[in-house]
Amino acid sequence: MIEFINETTDYLKNKGFDSPEIGIILGTGLNQIVNDIDVIQEVSYNHIPNFPTASVEFHKGKLIYGSLEGKKVVVMQGRFHFYEGYSLQDVTYPVRIMEKLGIHTLLISNASGAINLNFKKGELMLIDDHINLQGNSPLAFKGVSLLGERFVDMSEPYNTNIKNKLKTIASNKNITLHSGVYTSVIGPQLETKAEYRMLKTLGTDAVGMSTVPEVIVANHLNLKVAAISVLTDECNPETLEPVNIEDIIAMAKKAEPNLITLFKALIKTL
Fold first, then answer.
1. Residue 247's pLDDT is what?
2. pLDDT in tens, 29-61
3. pTM of the full structure
4. Residues 6+ away with beta carbon under 8 Å from 26
């Protein structure tokens, strides 16, 4: 993997990806922040050596480098998922590349379902902690210790200082920002009523199919991490109705401006 990482990094540096400070991973239906970036360079995933290729139709599949709020950023416009058939090492490979390029902070967004019924669709949740129900770890492979400490401490996977900044920004801008536990499942099927009840019993506030693998690897690389979920549906097992993926994406887009406001204000302070 080290050879692959070096080859990919060299390719991107030759393309002009020069010492980004902050990495951003954009979730389902969350792409508009790219419009605020002074783009210096962008490369399609399928042109990057050793990179996976996004196979979900609403994921753009580009790595973008530019300036946002005075900081150099590298943005994943489209992410990879375990449910697409990739290994978790594939899913998290871009995080390793962003760290190798020079980032010190990783900001992550996702679309998720609200298990906590005090949270409403269209609102945002700052991830305070997580539960990994994907049945695997992106660090469970031979030679991982060559890339960082094998037994990564996860007592505080999301940076406390950044979380506090986001809470302050949200309060000042009158944006509802809940705080809670995110559980990552494999998918791609959505949950049954019984599964939603189980997730609530476990202490889940929001459920999705991403983010946790990237956060684990970011901690493996000693990056500062913050993540926000856009709550796209309410998962009440007692009143559960069929979910339309187009409706989920539409709700993500509706809530996206508040997410962009938070990320842009945060980046100014990093």
1. 85
2. 678 899 999 999 999 999 999 998 755 544 468
3. 0.94
4. 33, 34, 75, 76, 77, 78, 79, 109
Whole-angstrom distance, CA of residue 246 vs CA of residue 31 = 15
Instruction: Count Cβ atoms below 10 Å from residue 122 Cβ, excluding itself.
Output: 17
DSSP category for residue 237: T
Alpha helical stretches, state H, 65-159? 88-101
Q: What is the pLDDT of residue 257?
A: 93
Domain boundaries of the chain, sorted by first residue = 2-269
User: Measured between alpha carbons, how far is 20 from 102 in angstroms, rounded to an integer?
Assistant: 6
- Greatest alpha-carbon pair distance for the chain in Å reads 55
The pLDDT tens digits for 53-106 are 755 544 468 999 999 999 999 999 989 999 999 999 999 999 999 999 999 999
Q: Please report the sign of the dihedral spanned by the C-alpha atoms of residue 141, residue 142, residue 145, residue 151.
A: positive
Q: Which of 81, 67, 80, 84 is nearest to 33 (CA)?
A: 67
| Average pLDDT, integer, range 189-215 | 97
Beta-carbon contacts of 132 under 8 Å, excluding residues fewer than 6 positions away, are 183, 184, 212, 216
CB 79 within 8 A of CB 54: yes
Q: Average pLDDT over the chain, rounded to whole?
A: 94
Evaluate whether 21 touches 98 at the Cβ level (below 8 Å): no
- List C-alpha distances in Å: 117 to 71, 156, 199, 231, 247: 37, 25, 12, 11, 19
- CATH classification (class only), 2-269: alpha beta
| CA separation for the pair 114, 95 (Å, rounded) | 26
From start to end of the chain, where are the E strands? Answer: 22-26, 38-44, 62-68, 71-77, 105-114, 124-132, 177-184, 206-208, 224-234
